[in-house]
Amino acid sequence: MNYASPCRVALFALVPLVAVALQSAHAQAPTPAPSVSPAPPPAENKSPGDLPTTTTPTAPPAPVQKADPFGEQITLTPKTVIATKGTANWDTAYETLVASLKTLAAALEKAGDKPAGNSMIVYTSTDDTGFTYLAEIPVDQEPKDLPKAITVAKSPEGKALKFVHRGSYENMDNTYEAITNHLDDKKLEAKDTFIEEYITNPLKTPDDKLVINVYVPLK
User: What pLDDT is attached to residue 105?
Assistant: First the structure.
């Protein structure tokens, strides 16, 4: 497959034509007669103290853009979370997950508490049609008077690989395909679960602006 853009192809096609035109014009142009320039006046001798000094400002170096980690080995630390279970099909997966996170956020606000970290989705099983999951929000302390469907639990812990996804939830298939290939190449065996940590708040962030850390626990 040719990835060259039409603009580049057209630009490179113009280069030989321009070169030929320049060579032809140079060959036909008459050779100018030599001219004699008057000798420059003698330079005035000045002491170093008489010379003006100028300081050229130096621009600060541009910040180095670091690439997102891909397959970074980390250790997950368990956090106290409020959680709710759910099931979803792939066609409406993101809408279902956001609805669960809204339920948790509303319960936390009603209890007078605030999140103590980023919201998470822990996938507990998957198949061709859908999946089961736990929606979780970290808290500093156990809230009181939670609805029956919401429990207090601990987030996953242990060794894992960290990956970063940027963009819509729909495009996460590409990220997970890359993760699968990475595991195969490294001969790594993962547990039957994976975690998504939403660095951007999915309740407020446009779908195409999401930043999600994906954690793959290892056996």
Answer: 96
Q: CA-to-CA distance for 105 and 109, rounded, in angstroms?
A: 6
Q: 173-196 in b/e burial notation, b at 16+ Cβ within 10 A?
A: eebeeebeeebeeeeeeeeebbbb
Residue 13 pLDDT > 80: no
3-class secondary structure, 28: helix
CATH for the stretch 70-217: 3.20.80.10
Looking at residue 56, what is its pLDDT? 55
Per-residue pLDDT reduced to its tens digit, 174-198: 999 999 999 999 999 999 899 999 9
DSSP 3-state of 10: helix
Q: Which of 125, 127, 131 is nearest to 97 (CA)?
A: 131
Q: How far apart are CA 86 and CA 67, in angstroms?
A: 34
104-157, pLDDT tens digit by residue?
999 999 999 999 999 999 999 999 999 999 999 999 998 988 999 999 999 999
- Asked whether 108 and 115 are in contact (CB, 8 A), the reply is yes
CA pair distance 16, 14, nearest whole angstrom: 6
Residue 149 tokens, joined = 């469907």
Residue tagged 């330079």 (tokens): 43
User: Which residues, in sequence order, are CB contacts of 215 under 8 Å at separation 6+?
Assistant: 74, 76, 156, 160, 161, 162, 163, 194, 195, 196, 197
What does DSSP say about strands 70-76 and 130-138: parallel, antiparallel, or unpaired? Answer: unpaired
